[in-house]
Structures are given as structure tokens and as C-alpha cells.
Write a structure and sequence with these properties.
- 6 copies of one chain form a homohexamer.
- By secondary structure, the first copy, chain A, is an alpha+beta fold.
- Chain A contains 11 helices and 8 strands.
- A 5-stranded mixed barrel of chain A has the order 1-2-3-5-4.
- In chain A, a hairpin with a 2-residue loop joins strand 2 and strand 3.
- The longest helix of chain A has 24 residues.
- The radius of gyration of chain A is 24 Å and the shape is elongated.
- Chains A and B meet through helix 6 and helix 11 of A and helix 6 and helix 11 of B.
């Protein structure tokens, strides 16, 4: 989260997806070793074949000069600084490691930013501002107060909320995913309230922004990716979320608080999806459907985005038990 | 569907829910016999106790004058013309049948409008105009053409679509329910497209308006209420709907037609809900969620609307396996 | 809950199941009207046929003297004081109402104890003492502290806990049912810990006593029987229970508290049974199985107890989808 | 589908399963490269190890002469013409590639018949004649007319029907599988009609032959094996099949057509198996059971056939969740 | 089972469905009292209204002469001898009870045959002969021996098998149903073996005849209808059937016996349908499908047979969750 | 089962898990070859890399002296006698094979005890004595007689029971597992009977000891591990167990026998878990819950035991769909 250091690093250290702009130039980049193999060329010369990765993709690197010593020194999972020349080989981008001592050097944890290895959304600040504007539109003073206690006054919470994912693998599984998902759901229910006039719009938008707050404690992000915390495993984000809401509920009328807690407690919608109670207000029902839809749409959009646009069909997705049409 | 006749009938024939405005007046109304019992008063006098109903509710009627002959003549299910005086008795509205020959007279089918016995939405024409305006916003000429072939050019279809229900019991189970549901879904996906910029809005709105067209052949409305037709039982509205679309598809590019058919074919979303295919485009996924949400919201709103506003909780709804909060 | 008043009432007012000991004696009892019918004997005399009930059963009563006036005055659901003579008629116990003004008199809510109409366990105090002795055996000071805060120091909680049911219909659906169930589960896991040496016995017994505490706020008992509260419907006893535990957790080490919360949060064992998380410690797994077993055993024992011991098989129980063998 | 070319090819080009009859002879065969590895013998000589396959199995081939150039030239998936000598080596059949230029030569798509690489039933023509004979036994002129429009008059359909599979992986997953399955089901229901006298035999046999016709558009066979078409993914063979029937339904009485469509629409039998409607005639019920049984029996027979007859039990089949007894 | 007595009874005692042939004649019949009501005519005369039934239907009877004494003497469930005159009244057949002492007389259990009150198939002996002929066609001596031990040599078993039902409510729920079902299944698998040449026909036919033999001990028929025995409830017909087979298995090769036991043990096909093992031979798979199909077809045929042929659709059947088409 | 030979072997042949005590010593051990790879060192020297295993774990072995000849001679799955020196290399225990002819020598089946390769519980005899003591506490002579027929008089059964597993993979999947599970369940129900006074303790303990006896015929243990027998696949341990009980039931009152058979037949508890009947006595219900709990607890304890105690969470267990907390 150190924007300045990241900017500096980026100057000398392109992301993998940017390497295609560095052909025939030297780079001095930071990557993680994904795989490693010591091999022998036809003429008996040893070389070290590396696959390097960051959050944007992976690339092949070849070390012809210090193959054996580097093979002993380095291990899969090490984050390294690599100096090399970017070339095209067999129609793919490749890094040829320079003939220097320490052309490949292992970094300690404080020498790089884990941002390089964890996917995240780009426009976090923009989304956060959009969320604040939405809070401004809440007319019910109690709901507005609760939202402000979380999203304005509690700086620590805001920091966590902006960098948390909303899932581990299936949907919004990247830093900022929780903010993106919560904001999307809030915008969706907001526009749905214009069609269903009977709904309590302030309650519903508030619930949309708060429904997944427990995830800031359920997940943690490190350079291995997203992991579930002990608290997350043992309580789950629903129970955690209700507790977090209780802690900021001083002075809020009991009935309103109960309705909000119900939105959090029931948003999984069905018992078999881990909901301790079923939605029992129209607002809870709408929140469940919209929340579920946004998760699935996000999932599908990611599947589609990473496919080759030439194909008609995505690969089979075992989570959703189907392929998706790309045309 | 005969607005004029209904207007005339209404003049002389209040609906059950209007009877409270006719206390101590005579009415000449049309009702269906819901139950019938010949009884004897404490002083040995026979009287005929009737329960009469129309689409707005039911009311007690007492015939003290021709009890036995009317008991023989009438049967449960008969639609009758009743002349009587409206009174309050034991804190309820009641009709005292007049002492006249044929004060209760059975009607043949062409003497009344079945509208009196089937619930329907009020603002059909307004909703239809709203639907036409939505069609005007479609920019894709092919999708617009298909919509116009159904909703503008095919007068017979329009008539059926405006008076069909969208379900038998659970949701939108009244005349006009199909129009209401289709329009709601179309408006909802339209507003959702503003948030999900990647969706094909014209495809999705078109699919929303067409997804349930098969229901015009699946259900039929008569004075018993809503019944499933033989075609509906044997094919179901999904297969019927795809066939109806094919019949109006001349000249439409194959790929667009296929996407539309997919929206109809997959809108139930899961195999166990009778979907022959799963949604495999983002549009199909969104249509399924929104369609499902609108059905449930309609269901819940009806449950809430018919409850006493004094209570905190509705009766237990066995279809949704829960009570609903009314506050 | 007023033991003295109940004792007094009992003196003059036998429970229905005791009436068989009062044949040919006069009683002055308190019952609820379950049904009521004004009838006429073969010789044209009007009589009022009542079915009266309390928590122990129901009995027929006949009023030959003020049939019509009482028919007008009384309604199903009224709690009444009845003076009459107990007789055998057609092989059944029956109350012949006396020929007096007000032989059947409606009571206001403060004239009777709702205990008469709600089933409850008998040995509440004994069970509570047994629970306290179990708490004494806990060696871990933190767990013991929590238990004492609930079961010793919080008098209001103790009162509620002793009179709450553990279910609405299926199991332990009577006053004191929660205490009975919690104590049973605690004793069971205690004895199981002797066989599974690896389990943390103090944690498990503590969790057993606390797992259903949320039910003191989920249910309420009145003279209609057991009802779910608004808080119970909207949050469920799992979420409520975790919150109640949090409120008494000051000074308890975080890790222990988390394990206890996990026992509460996961005790339903499977998502489809409303568990927001799955059991992830051996203790949580054992608690789930034992808790489930005790509910089912209680259910079956009640089915068996109320059957005629002459029969080989109980009636079909639709909740458990089977009959039970009675021999 | 070019029988003559296949005959010619076969002369000079044995299938893999026939190679055991060519030991020590030279062949000039057509195979697909399944895997490829450049290796070095103990004495430092490079050789190219190939696995070649066709629809009957796979075989090892070794190229000692042009290993490196062929390694560069060839890729997995290429269909090649191989000249070599068939030998036994390490108890397995093997092809030793000849020392000639182009002993292994890549073929373009029009140089071979994809039949070599797709499994198919042998007796297609015999089965087709059997199907025609069955059509002759239909006494109802309307059903017979429909069958003839498909299976006699529509040459294009007949061609597709004879070469389509009835599944992708689980059952009848080979060319001709659809014909085999449809004929089997028709024969089975025919013989069942002799036992259930009340069934409409003509309707049922017709439905059996037509129930899966949509599969001619759902699947496509190419040298990669069986793939689902875009139309198949988006509509499924049930909806496609009903549409195909509609297109040949001119002049057929509405009621008969509806019954036939119902057989197609309901043959999956249960909603969770993708049936948009449940079977609602005895014929539809029987068709569903027989169709399902034939699929499973075919699946099991294939499992059994490919196992070693010495074993008592097949490998575990994860699709059917069991092993099968082979004795 | 006393054919002679039944013949005699029938002479003087028509079944309910035959009463339409006795209009204006006197009968002396045996029926069970289904309901009973003492009523008063308009002129103040008491009459006793009875509904009488036997296995063929129910009929109204009126006693004008001994209404009150008979009302006291008789109870619902009594089997009675009724003398009366058959008439048409209000378009229905009715019995006017004669003015005689004991015109309605209660019978003790040995005065009538319970056959009158339990539905049964008509052609039991014919079906049994058909079964014996099928046994003659078994070529494997071991399987034939087992079948003969049951169906030829064990007279007690034969008697039970011929009069047992194959179900309680859903299918073949009448005396002789087990024979009918077993024979049907055997004939069906026999004809299926002609199409699937690989099946072991002798094994399969033997298994078909034996698969449900446990039902002779699972059900018992008395004048209340069909009841499950204690042994049936506690073990189920699958476990009972395997045990019965073991007891007649002396000298049969172990492997054949095991295959037969497998057919019995697995014929429910899926765990959730109470099968302790899944079908693991092709024969077991076919037996399961055919057995299941025959149950459903029987169920549907009974639904259809009892409906009015004028209607297009049966009533909704909640067991199969659908209506059936009657045209 | 030859304890003496095993003792001898152990002298000269440490188990894998004991090798860490043999560093720098020579061993002469018996292991199975798990994997094998011929490799070349940097200086061009061939060596054979083996992974050896027994029931306690696996270890790396290197043969520098007869690499190529041993590579040809040995295959994965061979049981071998290995002479070598135990060393630490790269922080792991490793065996350096000696430079001798036959330092690695394949053994025939009678040269080793399969105990070396199958996991088993240690305290079989102690558990067996504990089981006998439990039998002594049974007061009902009939139940005691049955237990003695199995566990005392039938030496062959006792031998099988002591060495059988109770499962293949999920729980108690090792020799002695059946004894361990049965004894555990019996002890658990015994202690539960002290809390539920209404249960028939003798019946329940007897049922607990017998519930899984069919598993002695369902599984067989050989050097490949645990396999299901043909009888086990075709009948399952429930049906086998009931039959085994029948064979030892001479002279036992029918009713008691039936209750015991019911405990065996219903112990899987639900149809979908392969139970042919549901538990219909309180004892059957308790046996099901306890049996299920013991299986799960055993499963979880094994997961926990094999994890590194430093970690907080186990690996994800796909059978139970969760991770387990290790702290």
C-alpha cells in the first residue's frame, strides 16, 4: 500500500504484461519464481529455465551464465530481482538473464510491495468516493449515522474495507473486490427501488453497503494470495458482520437496528447457502437476489474476460457447471 | 373484456368490497354462490343462508322468504342475480334477500362478465403504453422488429397478453399479471444495464418482454379462476414460447434469434426448476435472477397487502416456508 | 410462575387429567374453551356442549341450564371458571355444569396462572441445581467465569432460561425444555469425554450449556402456547446467542472466546440446517451430534409416552416420516 | 463418409488394433500424434519417441533416423502418414520408422477420412433397415407420415441421423450412437406394448424414434471427437427436437402432434434432469424409463467390454459411483 | 379365501357396483358402515342415513323404521347384513332398509369373508399359471430349482404370495398385487432380454420373480385394508427377502446365489430409495428400471381408470406431483 | 499375524518411522518400492533414486553402484530387502544402498509379513479384553448368549473381527479398526444409557457390538491395502450382518432377535446413507447417532494427528468439505 514505492519500482520494473513493450531493452524487474528447471542444451551446455510471475501474468526467463549456482540458490516461491534483456523467442516474450553476479537476486519481504503479486481493482479511490456520495443520499438520519461511523469515521475500517476481497476464488477474489461488490449491490438496489416503490430505500441501500462487512475480518491477503482467517473459519462473515454492526449501534433505535441485522443475517437467502435465517422482509429478499446476481455476474465476466476473443465458447467452468458463450 | 357492460353492471351491482357503502340501500347485484345451507330459526322458521362472492371478497346473504324453493333451485357455483337490502348484522355486512319471486335468479354465461370473478390488475392500458414506449427505445432494428410483430402488429396476441396471468397461485396469479410481470422485468433489466455496462441492453430488454410469452397459451382464465390448458400441461410455456418466437422470426439474423431463444429457454435458471438449458450468457443469467426476484417480490407483496396492518407478522406461508414481517 | 397461587388454585381446581379422581364430586375449576356447540335434545331442550382443556388434556362439559345465555356470552379461547359435578357418561369423564348464575364465568388474565395452559417440566429446580453442580466441575477458570456470569449472577437470565422451551413443536416444546435439553446435552458430552480422551472437556461442557442460550430471546410463552419473537424470527437463536456471549465476555482470552462462539455458531452442523459455519473442531462436531441426538430422542420419547401402551406401533409421525415401535 | 477411400486406405494402412497381424511387415499407415518426446539413448544417440493413435487404440513408434528434424516439424494433434516396420518390443507392438525422407509426413484435412479417428458403430446400414421395417409396422397413418418425412424423405436428415452420437462421454458416445439408441428404445417399447395392452403402441414407437432427433443438431463430430454445437449449448436437444417436429407437421392432427411433442419434451422425466415438463401420459412415462435404461445399460456394457475379462470387478466409475461385476 | 362361501354370499348379496342391476328388487347384502347420521325430515320424522361400502364402492341407505334403535346399536366400521329394497333417488342408487327387526344386523368376523372389503385382482389363478409356465422356460437348473422351491413346493408361500399386495397405497395396493407386479416384471425383463442379447436371461427372470418376495411378510391384509407388519417395519422387504432366499438355497452354487441376492438387495436402485447397495450387474440395473417402471405405470393406470372418461385431465396426484392426460 | 517372525524382522529391519534412530548405521530392512527413477549426476554418473515405504511412512534411497541393473530388475510395487546405510541428506533421512550384489533383493510373498504394509491399531488384545468385560455386564441372558456365540465361541470370527478395518478410506481404515469402532460405540451407548434411563441398555450395547459385524466379510486386507470383497460389493455389510446374526440365533426369542436385527438394518439412519429401514426404536436412533459420531470423530482425529502441530489449520478435507482447527 505504499504508492510511492510502487511507482518507483514500476519505473525500473515493468509488470509481466508490459514486457511486450520492452523488447530488446534491459529491465531490472521484481517477480516471483513459479517454476525452475536446470537443463542441458544439445551441445551439452547447462542452462536454467525459469518461469517468473506477478499478478499480471507469467513469462519465461533463461539464465545461460550462472545456471548451476542459481539453481542451488533459488527456490520456487522466492521473490527475486531479475536483470535481463527482453526478447522474442519462439513467438513468445522471454527474458534473457544478464551475465552478472546477482543478476537474479532474492528479495526479503521489505524490499518489495506485495501489491505486485495480488490482483486488485484499479479504481479503488473512485469507487470509495462513489460510495460516499451514495451515503449522502440517505435521508434517514439513523441509517446515515451508522454508515458514517463505518465508512467515514473509522479510518482503520475504511482501509481494510478498501483492500479486502469479497471471495477466495469464485467471485471478486482480488483486493478491492469487497468495495466493488458492495458498491455494485448498493447501486443495483438503489435503481430497483425506483421500480418497486414500496421498498424502504434507505434501509436497503444501507444494508447493501453493510451486508458483507464481516469479510474484512474473514479474509486476509498476503503474497500467497487470499486466505481465510481463523476468525473467518470459526464464525463466518455473517456472524462477524452482525457483531461489528452491534459495536457501532449506540443510540440507534432498536427496530431499525434489528432490520439491518436481519439484512446481514439473511443475505445468503437459503439455509443450504449458510443463511442462519431466511429473508423475511421484502428488502431482505431483494438484497439476497441482487447480492447473488452480482456475485455470479462478476464470476462470469471474469471467465469471459480471460478467454481468447476468437473462440465461441469458454472453457467448461466446474463451479457453475457450464461453458459460457463468448460471441 | 367488455368494458361497457362492466360499467353498466357496476351501476346497479356493487362489488362485495363496495357493499359497505350501501348499508340500508337495495342492491341488484351479481355474485357466485360459494356455500349454501338451509337452516331453522329458534322459532322453527326455515331460512336459507348463502355465502356470495366475487373477485373482491365474500358476503353473507339470508333469504327468509323463499328458503326451501331457492335451496332446491340453486347450487354452489351458480352465478346469480340477487336483489336485497344491505344491512349490518353481528358487526358484519349482510344482504337480506327481498321477498320477491326471483329475488335470487341464476344467470347464464352471457348474462355476466367473468371479470367480476377473476382478479385483475387495474392499469392494464397504462402498462401496455409503458411497454410500447420501452420498445421504442430499442435501437437494434432486428430486436425491435420482433417486438413489434408481437406487441404491435399481432392484435390477437396483444389481447391475450394483456389479460393473461403469469402464474396459477404463487405470483401474478390474476388477469394482467403477465403484462405486469413482463414489464417489471424489462424495466428492472433496463436499469441494471446502466450499472453493468458490458451487457447487451437491447437483447436483454427484448428477452425480458418475451421470456414468458408462452404463458398466453399455457393458462386460460374462466369463471373458476385460472386453469392450465392441455397445451400448457403437455409442453410448458418455455417450449411454447420458443415456438411462438420461431413463427415470427422471418428475416431475423440466425445468431440474434438464437440468443433470444436462449433467453427464453434458460430463464428458469436451474435444471430442477424446469430449465432445459442453463443460462450461458451474462444476459441470460441476469434475466433469470431478475425474473425470479420479481416473482418472489410480487408474492411477498401480495402476502403483506392482504394482512391486517395491526399485526407484526403475516401468517406462515407454506410455499416460501416462512412468515413475513409487516412493520 | 406464582407457585403459591397455583397451589391454591389446584386445591379447588383439579387439572383435566385429575378429574377421574373427582367422580360424583363438585369441582370449581379453571379451563380454556376449546370448542362450543349449542344443541337440541330429542325432546327439544337446548343444551350447550363445551370442550374444556388445560395443559393436561381436554374434557366434555354440558350445560343444561343456561345454554343459550352462556352460548352468547362465551367464545372459543376464553379462559373460564367452571363449577360442576364430575360424572361418567358414555364411558368418558364429563362435567355437568351446575344450575347457577355464573357457573361458567370468564376470567381476566390476572385471575389465573398461564401455567395451567402451558406444558412444563416438573423438576425445574432440581435440574437447575444439577446444572450448577456441573459448573462447579469446570476447572478452566475462564470458562467457569462465563458460565457463572450467565447461570449464577444474571438472575434475570436464569429466570428466563428456566422457563423457556427449546422448540416450538418438534422437541422440548414446553416450559423448562431449554433447561432440560441444555443439561442433558452437557451431561452427555461430559460422559463422552471419558471415552474420547483427546477432547477439551471444559470447553465442551461449557459449550453444551451455552449452545442454545439465544432461545431465551427467540421464543416467548403465553397462554396461546409458544410463539417466536420478532427478534427470533429476524436473527435466529444462533446469532442472538453469539451476541449474548459477547456481552459477557469481558476479560476472557480471545482464543477461548472464539472457540466457544464457534460451538454456538456451528451447532446445527450442516448448512441446510441453518448453520452459518460447519463444525471445525472435534468438540464442535461432538456437540452437534449430541445436540441433534437429544432433540430426536426427546421427540421420540414424547411420541411413545403419549401412545396407548397396548398398541405395538405409534401413529405415523410426519415430521420424522415413520411410526415408532412401542414394545 | 467416403467408403471407397476408406477401403483403399485400409489396404495399405492398418488400424492400430490390426497391427498385431503385421509383425515384421512394413506398413504405410495414417495416425494422429498423441504424444512426442525427443530422447537420448545410453550411447548418446537421439531418437524420437511417438505415440500414434486412431479410433481403435494407440501404439508406440520410434524414429532413429530423422529424430531431430521430425521433432521440429511435427506437433501433437497432427495427422500423419507413417511408413515403418511393425515389431514386438518389450512385449508390446511397436512401429520402427523407416530411414527415409518423409517417412513421417503430415497430412492435410482432405488427405484422410476422419472416420479413422472417431469411434463408430459397425452395422449402421443394418440398423437403418431395421428402423425402416419398424416404421412399416406403424398402422396410424399420421404417425407413419411423420416418420417417413424424417427417415425416408429427408435424405440430409437421414445422413446426419446415421452418423450422430447420442452423447458426449457417458453413453452412445460414438458415430451411429444416436441411431443405435433410438432403434433400441423403439424396439424395447414395442415389446413392452405387448405386455401393457393399454398403451398406444403407434404413438409410443413413433415417439421412441423421434425423442432424440434434436441431437443431430446438438452434437458435431470432428477429428477431435464429439463436440456440442452452439445451437446445442444454447437450446438443448429437447427444444431443438420439438422445433424440428413442428417443421414436418403440416396436415397432422393437432392432438396427435401435441402428444408426440409431449413425448419429446418430457423424455428426461424429472425437472432436475432438464425436463421442461413431467411425463403426463402413460406413453411418456414408459418412454422416459426405457430411454433412461437404455442409456445406462449402454454405459455399463461399454465399461464391461473394455475391462480385462480376468478381473472380477471393473474400475470405479465416477459417473455411476460404483464398480461393476464382470463375472 | 373361501371361494365357495363367497359364491354363496354373492348369490344373495350383490356388491355395491352391482346394485344398479337390482333396482326395485330386494337384496340381503353384506357391507361395512362407512358413516352414519340420525336425521329428522321436514315433517319431524327421524331417519337413519347410512353410507355402506365394500371393496367396489359405497352406497347410501336409509332406515325410516328403526332409526333410533339402530343408531344406538351400530357403529362406523361394523360389518352388517342389510335387507332392503334398491331404488333410484336423486339420480343415485340407494337402499331403503326394510321395516323389520334386524333388517340391519351386525356380523361377527366368521360370518363374512374379508374378500368383500379388500380390493383384489380377479385373475389370480390365471396369473399364477402364467408364472408357472415362465418357470418352465428357465434352462439353468439351479435357478429353476430355487423358483420351484418357492412357487411349487412351498404351498404356504404360494398361498401368501397369491394374496399379498405389492404396496400400501401407491401401486398394486390390493390383494394379488404382488403376484401381478412380479409376473409383469418377469415378462418385461424376458422380452427385454431378446433385445439385449448379453444379459443372463435365466438369472434376470428368476430375480424378477423373487425380487419382492419379502413383501409376503411385510404386509398383512385385514378388513381394515393393508397394514405393515412389525417384521416389515423393522426389517423391510429387502432384508426379509434375502433371508427367505437363503433359507431355500441349499445346494445352490455360491456365485449364483450371490447374484440372485444382489438382485433382491439392489432392486430399489438408489440409496435414497432404500437400497442398501447399488445395482452392479447389468441384470440388476435392468431389474431396477423395469421394477420401477411397472410400479409407476400401475399407479398411473389406476389414476386414469378411476377418472371420468369425459374429462381431459385427472385430478392432481400429489404423490407424482402432476395431473395425467386422459385423452 | 505371525508375531514371532515380525519380532525377528524388526530386529534387523526398522520401520521407516524408526530410521531416524539409525543414522550412520547399517540396516537390512523390508520395504515396498513406491517410485523409482534412473538419473544422471552432474558428472555423468548414473544413479537409481528409489522411494521406499512401509505402513509408517516413506523414505528416499539412492543406489550409486548397481543403478542400471537394479533399474531393470525392480518394479514399483515390489517388496524388497534393502541393505544400506542411513544418513541425513538435505535435511531428510535417506538410505544409501550398499555396494553389494543383491543389496536390493525382491522378496516373495512368504518372505515377509504383510503387517509391515498395512496400518493397524496397536492394542488389539487390550481392546478385545475390554470387549469381553463389557459382554460380562450384559444381564439379559439371550443377548449375552448371542454375543458369546460370536465373540467367545467362534474363534474364526474373533480372528477376523480383530483384524478387520471398519472402512476403506474415510474412518477406521486400518486393521483393528472394526474392533476399535465397535468397542467405542458400545462404550458410548453404555454411558449414554446412564443419562437416558428409558433405554434398554442390554439391547443397545449388544446392538453396538454387532452393528458392523458384516464388515468382516465386506473388506479384505492384503498388501495393497484394504479392498472390498465381491460379497461386500454385492450385498453390503448390513444385509451380510443380518444374515450372520440369523445363523447364530437358534433358541433366541423372536422379538428380541427382531429388535437386534433392526439395530443392524437401520444403523445407517437415513435412506440416502444406504439404510434399508429407518430407526424405529429409541435404541436404534441412539445407535445411529453414536455410530455416525464415532466415525466422524475418528476421521477428524486422524486428520488432526497427521498434521504438523505448528500449523493452525489442517489441509482442506474434501470428504468433510472443510479444514479443521489444530490449536
Amino acid at each position: 500500500m505504499n504508492g510511492f514505492r510502487e511507482a518507483l519500482e514500476k519505473l525500473r520494473s515493468p509488470y509481466v504484461e508490459e514486457l511486450k513493450n520492452w523488447i530488446d531493452k534491459e529491465i531490472d524487474g521484481i517477480y516471483k519464481i513459479k517454476s525452475k528447471k536446470l537443463q542441458e542444451s544439445k551441445d551439452g551446455k547447462k542452462f536454467l529455465l525459469l518461469t517468473l510471475e506477478d499478478r499480471t501474468g507469467s513469462v519465461r526467463a533463461i539464465d545461460w551464465y550462472n545456471a548451476e549456482s542459481n539453481d542451488e540458490k533459488l527456490q520456487v516461491g522466492h521473490v527475486v530481482n531479475v536483470r535481463g534483456r527482453v526478447v522474442y523467442f519462439e513467438e513468445r516474450v522471454q527474458i534473457n538473464v544478464l551475465n552478472e553476479q546477482d543478476a537474479v537476486r532474492r528479495l526479503s519481504e521489505n524490499e518489495y510491495d506485495i501489491e505486485r503479486f495480488v490482483k486488485s481493482v484499479e479504481n479503488v479511490d473512485e469507487m470509495y468516493k462513489s460510495l460516499l456520495r451514495l451515503i449522502d443520499t440517505i435521508r434517514d438520519e439513523d441509517y446515515k449515522t451508522i454508515l458514517q461511523r463505518f465508512f467515514v469515521e473509522d479510518k482503520n475500517f475504511v482501509e481494510m474495507f478498501k483492500s479486502a476481497p469479497a471471495g477466495m476464488r469464485i467471485h471478486h477474489a482480488y483486493k478491492g473486490g469487497l468495495l466493488e461488490h458492495s458498491l455494485n449491490v448498493a447501486k443495483l438496489v438503489d435503481s430497483i427501488c425506483k421500480i418497486y416503490g414500496q421498498l424502504d430505500r434507505d434501509l436497503l441501500v444501507t444494508g447493501a453497503l453493510l451486508h458483507d462487512i464481516g469479510k474484512v475480518k474473514e479474509y486476509m491477503v498476503n503474497y500467497n494470495g487470499i486466505e481465510v482467517t481463523t476468525e473467518g473459519e470459526l464464525m463466518g462473515h455473517i456472524v462477524i458482520g452482525v457483531e461489528m454492526l452491534s459495536q457501532k449501534a449506540k443510540g440507534i433505535p432498536y427496530e431499525k437496528l434489528l432490520k439491518l441485522k436481519h439484512l446481514i443475517a439473511s443475505h445468503h437467502g437459503e439455509f443450504e447457502w449458510g443463511s442462519p435465517v431466511l429473508p423475511k422482509t421484502p428488502e431482505a429478499l431483494v438484497l439476497h437476489f441482487v447480492e447473488n446476481m452480482d456475485s455470479k455476474v462478476n464470476r462470469v465476466m471474469q471467465i469471459i474476460d480471460k478467454e481468447d476473443r476468437e473462440k465461441s465458447w469458454s472453457e467448461y467452468d466446474s463451479n457453475l457447471s457450464r461453458r459460457f458463450f463468448l460471441k
